[in-house]
Amino acid sequence: MTKTTKTTKATVKYPQGAILIIDGYNIFARNYLVNPSLSINGDPIGGFVGFIRSLGVLAEKFTASRIIVAWEGGKSARRRALHPGYKAGRKPLRLNRSELYEKDLDSPENFGWQVAQSVQLLEMTPIEQLYADDCEADDVIGWLCRHKLKDNTEPIVICSSDQDMLQLLRPDVYMYSHTGSKLYTEENVIEKYGISPENFVTARAFIGDSSDRIDGIKGIGFKTLIRQFPKLSGREFVSIDDILTECNDKVSNAKKPKKALQAIVDNPDVPRLNWKLMYLDISNLSAEHVKQLKYRYDNTVTARNKIKFHMEILKRGIRDPQHINLDTFWRRISTIQTQE
Asked: How far apart are CA 190 and CA 184, in angstroms?
């Protein structure tokens, strides 16, 4: 079942009765950056109240049967061992709101406090939460899609603006990005990038990812790759070594090799390393990570404690409906099944 929504560009059909997998920090941080709300105590609460509202909106948009929030448990030790510069030097999120906030309130501590409030209060709702110590949310989502929910019959919607998630798409798995309110399917990934989800990591291994401090090969982008290796648009998996072999053949047989192809031939270790950093599966999870995820997933118990939720909201200086309309939130998540 799908819900059709008219947009200025096209008609979008949203899958209904879906399992939503929420990239927790991704959605939370977006709200933290744009929502200037303050509690009655003067504390910034925009991240928290915006995140809760977003969950309600997403639940209604997809008539969610389940929502699983994947939280960050820390940076991946395996990735850092492979590449010490991985995600290094990232600046903490800072807001340009000096007219609203005192400097000491706009801080990493406040960000962490708001995340903690989100985690605590969601425990009173039918929304599930999943994480593992020292495990990135990307890997949690990869484990869910490729392993725990691989035989699921309901549609799955990953809610994130992170390009890494596009590798997980298949006929019953979609990605919804708040940025532009865009629903990604297998087909429109190919339309936008020229690369199929099956080969998205292969392509990005050559391109790199500046947001995670992963360098690619200079001069290589999606257009160059699809022009030189059109099979990347197909549904059959193309490996890094497949591209390197073909590239070597082209360079060897050319009187004057193209600069991009020569650059690939000269830097074969770059895409091989990047593949290990970018591929979402269990390769970057330890046995302990998998054990934690399985245990928490299989033993999740959720609630529908509206009265306690309302009391805790008020206790934190959050007002209904000025900051968040609680009746609307509970109505929107009413389709979610409680896990017992």
From this structure: 10
CB count in 10 Å sphere of residue 331: 13
Residues 6+ apart with CB under 8 A from 331: none
Mind listing the pLDDT tens digit for each residue in 223-281? 999 999 999 999 999 999 999 999 999 999 998 999 999 999 999 999 999 999 999 98
Do the strands 11-15 and 2-6 form a parallel or antiparallel pair, or are they unpaired? Answer: antiparallel
Using CA atoms of 14, 19, 24, 30 in order, give the dihedral in degrees to the nearest 10. 10
Paired sense of beta strands 19-23 and 208-209, if any: unpaired
In this prediction the pTM is 0.91
**Which helix H or strand E contains 222, and what residues bound it?**
helix 222-228
**Tokens coding 125:** 């709702």
Distance CA 167, CA 138 (A): 11
Per residue in 3-51, pLDDT (tens digit) is 655 444 456 789 999 999 999 999 999 999 889 899 998 888 999 999 9
